[in-house]
Amino acid sequence: MTTVVLRPAHVPDTTIVEGPRVLRRLPEGVPSRPYDVFGLRPLGRVIGAEIEGVHLARPLTEPVRAELHRAFLEWKVLFFRDQDITPAQQRAFARNWGELETNPLLPAGDSDDVTRFSRDAAMPAFENIWHTDVTFRPNPALGSVLRLVRVPAAGGDTMWADMAAAYDNLPADVRRRITGLRAVHDFVPGFARFTDPEFLAARQAEFPPVEHPVVRTHPETGRRTLFVNPAFTTHIVGLDRAESDALLRVLFAQAHVPEFQIRFAWTENAVAFWDNRATQHYAVNDYAPEVRVAERVAIAGDRPY
Question: Residues 98-107: pLDDT tens digits?
Fold first, then answer.
């Protein structure tokens, strides 16, 4: 592996990593095991798997829930095809992993727990930026369950990036540099481009900027993951603006590495269930003027450490 670092003070403005990547799907020392109660088809080396033989309209038995949870931690995002379920059934599935929450800055759907995203030419998508959901909150979401209700004829894929792999593949000097650092997360930059300024101002008192560690320890797997994203992370605490911006550019760029990603082509009633603590995602906005309709349920999380 060859690393070229440009810029003094250990803050590279450009970091080029060539050669093989470190693609470790599981925590150190954890063996890979087969799944006994459903089929699992990997879609990528470190992230993304399609589950076969589980119908989300039915309550999960404990053996199925436990094995899905293991797959969720190991593959970070799970996909289920042909799930013609109601919002109530979607909520019931998500509640297997905790209490539900909504994004307070987005309109609600058919219930308090379901957010509907309908995108067309009049209201283009705004999720086409790499991000982790609601990191502007002290306790960002644990995960989300997203179902596509209406799918464009072409386009409209969603991409996810494994932020543990992103951390593992940082140059050693950058990993040392970011150890112990904290960053500020604020909803205003991510929502300012499509939200009324008066609405933003009214919500700023309710949701002031928060600090999170630049490197988060996953509370269940123990993996170190990069926990900064260009939608909500504004600066690194204790660094001047130029130094902070340069370092964040390097960290943000890690999500763009194809080896750390999975890209999912939606079909009607397909469901994605992802670990918001370990991933970033990007909704590809390439389907206008067609319509794309999705319904999402989010699961409340804990404070990053």
Answer: 999 987 776 5
For residue 127, the tally of other CB atoms under 10 A from its CB is 18
Catalytic residue among 185, 223, 277, 281: 281
Active site residue 131: yes
Per DSSP, 131 falls in state: B
Mark whether 24 is an active-site residue. no
Amino acid of residue 183: A
Could you give the CA distance from residue 114 to residue 117 in angstroms, rounded to a whole number? 10
- Both tokens assigned to 137: 């909150």
Residues 6+ apart with CB under 8 A from 146: 158, 271, 272, 273, 274, 294, 295, 296, 297
**Which tokens hold the place of 22?**
């470190």
Report pLDDT for 111. Answer: 53
Determine which one of 25, 113, 119, 133 is catalytic: 133
296 is catalytic: yes
| Catalytic residue list contains 95 | no
Length of the chain: 305
| Selected catalytic residue, list 25, 119, 131, 223 | 131
